[in-house]
Amino acid sequence: MSQIQPHTIRMHALDNVAIVANNGGLAEGTTLPCGLTLIDRVPQGHKVALVDLAADAPVLRYGIPIGYALKAIPAGSWVHERLLKMPDARELDNLPISTVKSAPQPPLEGYTFQGYRNADGSVGTRNILAITQTVQCVAGVTDFAVQRIKAELLPKFPHVDDVVALEHTYGCGVAIDAPGAEIPIRTLRNISLNPNFGGEVMVVSLGCEKLQPDRLFPPGTIEIQSLGGSRGTGSAGPLAAPPLLGAEAQSASGGIVVLQDDAHVGFMAMVESIMRQATQHLTRLNARRRETVPAAELVVGVQCGGSDAFSGATANPAVGFCTDLLVRAGASVMFSETTEVRDGIDQLTARASTPEVAQAMIHEMAWYDAYLKRGSVDRSANTTPGNKKGGLSNIVEKAMGSIVKSGSSAITGVLAPGEKLKQKGLTYAATPASDFICGTLQIAAGMNLHVFTTGRGTPYGLAEVPVIKVATRSDLARRWHDLMDVNAGTIADGTATIEDVGWELFRLMLEVASGRKKTWAEHWKLHNALVLFNPAPVT
Ligand code: CA
Question: In terms of domains, do 276 and 300 share one?
Answer without folding.
Answer: no
